[in-house]
Amino acid sequence: MKNFLVTYHSTPESMEAMASATPEQMAEGMKPWMEWQERVGSSLVEMGSPLCASQKLTASSTDGACSNSVTGYSIIQADDMAGAKKVLENHPHLGWDNGAWVEVHESMAM
What CATH number does residue 81 fall under? Predict the structure, then answer.
C-alpha cells in the first residue's frame, strides 16, 4: 500500500465563511466528514485537520506571506492513484458548490 497526501482547496469566500461559522455550524459541517471517515475505514491513515495562514520560507527570507487555496489535509492509503481516487469518491469537500477541489499527491516514500 502507498500513502497519498490529500490537500483540500477552497475559494477565499469559502475560507471566510468557515472562519465566521458558529460552533454549531462547524459541528454540523463535520458530520459528512465523520461519515466519510467511517465509510473508508482503514484507508484513512490520518484524518488531518484544517489549516490556517501559511508563510513562505526561502533561502533568503523567512517572512514571505503566502496566498494559496490550501485549507486542510488528510493522508490516505491505497494500492495506486486509481485506488486513491476511489477512496475520495463522494468526499464531502467535493460536494461544496463553491469551487472547492481536492489534490492527491502520491508519497514517494518506500
Answer: 3.30.70.1060
Cell of 109: 516514500
Task: Read off φ and ψ for residue 64, nearest 5 degrees.
Answer: -80, 130
Exposure string of 13-49, with b = 16+ CB inside 10 Å and e = fewer, is ebbeeeeeeeeeeeeeeeeeeeebeeebeebbeeebe
Nearest to 93 by CA among 63, 68, 69: 69
Range of the domain at 52: 2-106
Spatial contact of 72 and 47, defined as CB atoms under 8 Å apart: no
* Number of domains the chain is built from: 1
Q: What is the pLDDT of residues 26-54, one digit of tens each?
A: 899 899 999 999 999 999 999 999 887 78
Q: What is the pTM of this model?
A: 0.86
- Sheet containing 44-50: give its strands across: 44-50, 70-78, 2-9, 101-106
Q: Which element (helix H / strand E) includes 35?
A: helix 23-40
